[in-house]
Amino acid sequence: MSSYEQDFYRWTQEQANLLRQGRLSAIDVDHLIEELETLGARERRELTYRLKVLLAHLLKWRYQPKGRSRSWRATIDEQRLSLDDLLDDNPSLRSTLDEQLAKAHRLGRLLAIKETDLDEDIFPGSCPFALADVLAKDRYPGE
């Protein structure tokens, strides 16, 4: 059994040292590829998660105006800032924004339904917001 299965942290340190030493033939290539792909997928999932939370609050903001609060506004602002940071750190994710927006809307819609007393038919099945409006600072639908 390799150190990858026995002690993942130790395996990562070993692989880093092998790379630093230029001992490429000793690298555990298959597991290293797997881990690199996992890291990329994690960033994409983070993008979807942030968009989901943002969209849920934008939906609530638009369709439940009596429930608007500083807390909702702060969550909208926080998610937008976090998305800016994520996209600055991972610019290639920008090319996936339209696809991720559609995925995140489905999840955000479910979250908005869960967090409100509104009938689920109130919330549209497809995203009612343009991507630019979703990401724009100081834009709140219905204001």
From TrEMBL:
Origin: domain of life: Bacteria
Pfam families for this protein: DUF29
Which protein are we looking at?
DUF29 domain-containing protein
Write down the species.
Answer: Thioflavicoccus mobilis 8321
